[in-house]
């Protein structure tokens, strides 16, 4: 399970260094193989390969709305491997989609990660909190 956020800097080639706290688990569960794809919120989803395959299989089995999701998630998916320097290359088209330039946040969300432009994530979180839609979820958690 992946949790917590890491402030990272993309290098000049668009590579991200995988935080050390996640490397061992990613190596064990995915042999350093990841899949990166678009998310509708203009961030990227980063999956360990086995988690991606499960997610992809669910999308492929969908009928209603399946074409849109297949185009978004499967159509933009890029398979990558963590290199010997613990880095992952983020494809230029995915960086452009998510507005990733240099300062990014890698956020563990359970079985996958979200990769955000740091400023875009801060704005998105403020917007979500301002909507008030999470109030009931907070109440359900006893917060």
Would you mind describing this structure in some detail?
The structure is a single chain. This protein is α+β, with helices and mostly antiparallel strands. The chain has a single domain (2-118), classed as Chemotaxis protein chec (3-Layer(aba) Sandwich), CATH 3.40.1550.20. Helices cover 41% and strands 31% of the residues. It has six helices and eight strands; from the N terminus they run E-E-H-E-E-H-H-E-E-H-E-E-H-H. It has helices at residues 20-30, 49-60, 66-74, 92-98, 118-131, 135-140; strands at residues 2-9, 15-17, 33-39, 43-48, 78-81, 87-89, 103-110, 113-117. A six-stranded antiparallel sheet has the order 1-7-8-4-3-5. Strands 2-6 form a two-stranded antiparallel sheet. A hairpin with a 3-residue loop joins strand 3 and strand 4. The protein starts with a strand and ends with a helix. The mean pLDDT is 95.
């Amino acid at each position: 399970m992946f949790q917590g956020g890491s402030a990272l800097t993309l290098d000049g080639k668009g590579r991200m260094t995988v935080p050390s706290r996640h490397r061992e688990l990613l190596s064990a569960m995915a042999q350093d193989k990841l899949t990166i794809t678009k998310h509708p919120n203009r961030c990227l989803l980063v999956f360990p390969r086995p988690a991606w395959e499960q997610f992809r299989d669910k999308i492929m089995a969908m009928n209603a709305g399946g074409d849109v999701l297949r185009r978004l998630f499967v159509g933009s998916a890029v398979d990558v491997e963590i290199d010997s320097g613990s880095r992952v290359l983020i494809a230029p088209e995915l960086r452009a989609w998510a507005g990733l330039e240099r300062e990014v946040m890698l956020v563990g969300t359970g079985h996958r990660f979200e990769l955000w432009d740091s400023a875009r994530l801060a704005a998105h979180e403020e917007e979500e909190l301002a909507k008030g839609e999470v109030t009931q979820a907070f109440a359900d958690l006893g917060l």
